Sequence to fold (517 residues):
Amino acid sequence: MDVLAQFADTLVLTARDILPVAALLLFFHLVVLRKPLPNWKRVSLGFLFVLVGLALFLDGPETALFPIGKIMAKQLSAPEFVFGEKTAPPDAAWYAYAWVFVFGGMIGFAATVAEPALIAVSFKAQEVSRGGLSQWGLRVAVAIGVATGIGIGTFRIVTGTPLYFYILAGYAIVIVQTVFAPREIIALAYDSGGVTTSTVTVPLVTALGLGLTETVPGRDPALDGFGLIAFASVFPIMTVMGYAQTAQWVSRRKARAAREE
Amino acid sequence: MDEPGGISDRTAKLLEVFGIHLLGAFRDLVPIIVVIAGFQLLVLRQPFPELVDMLGGLVLVILGLAFFVLGLEIGLFPIGEAMAEAFARKGSLFWLLLFGFGLGFSTTVAEPALIAVTKEAAVVAADGKFIPPDADSMRSYALGLRITVALSVGVAIVVGLLRILKGWPIQYLIIGGYVAVMIITVFAPKEIVGIAYDSGGVTTSTVTVPLVTALGVGLAATIRGRNPLVDGFGLIAFASLLPMVFVMAYGMVLFR
Fold:
């Protein structure tokens, strides 16, 4: 019964988030555009599904996946696991925490693949490009970007180096890549940076960062816990542009080979 | 109304589609299961903490994902596209931009992730003695941040829609934005930089993204001379960029 009560709570909270959007859509459709809703039964059913889906989605991870993410971040960075001793030596090398970076990267990849907002965007991208971009190719490219971002972001937390240094360097790379990337991919690549960080990734990544700052000696959760989300938004831009650049390069090489024959 | 046979046929069809989505959702979650199980069993070699809870949560997530994606296909995408088309046909720039602003503002101001982040930021600011450490000033600081971010997302959607209509190339706008972020970072108070960078990521929620994407793509598909792939995307990029600028500016105004 407890689970049901909790689910009802989440459902109410989610409904409160969706209501303003639904009201806005209705107002503009009926008052400004003065048109009846097309297929209103189907569309309302769709909204109901989104509501139920989001509520389930928010409830599930909260009760199960995120606590596990935090526990595992702590276990992997605990002195007993890293050094086999009760306390961490003060001059510990960063590579002692290698498993943390690997775990951060892999869980970032896995969470991104399950991210509903990214599913939505890559679905549209495949539809709009008439199959030129594959939904899975795009999702994997973004997921690799998030994995790299979280891996480097956890490295930053362990070493305690300043956040802005990494992010500004990331932007510089993005700007250079933009000059050379195919024009069609640019808008989509920039979008994928914002899309990756929603329902699944944000709480999971935050749990990871907080778990780490609690066990790595000399880290302050308030100062060092922030910033992983920023990493997860910059790196996918690079990998998506890289994906398009590689695809373009391969097809050009093929074309050239075909011409030479 | 439909005859009974028609309804049960449609229900059966819906159930079949839902089954397919359930399978897809399971496939999407396999990586998470593999990573967590692999690390527990091979690297940590510790018993699973709260195994039953985790499996229960996983079932909820799979169901949720299936419902969400199905709702997306039959609800959010069609309505977003229908509205983009109707706006393009009506030809009223004012109402389109007002709609875009309202969509950005209303979906952001109530976003749970944003509420959580701004609360956390108020605690950090109070610890750093930037604001008085009482509940009232912390609440007003968090609210100020939230309004700032919501305003910035509204403005971002307006700018993005204008870009689609005018056909401006996205790279100049975005690179200009990044350069602005870099410059403001130098002058902004250190305590606000982390939250400013993160606020760009948390604004784009799971409901906003499909609607905004459908709006942009639908608009670019309706207007002559626009390519939905080149011009339709990019609204979310603006919505993740502008909050950084606005929040750092907010910090500079407040802490000076």
In short: Chain B has ten helices and no strands. The CA atoms of residues 144 and 183 of chain B lie 23 Å apart.
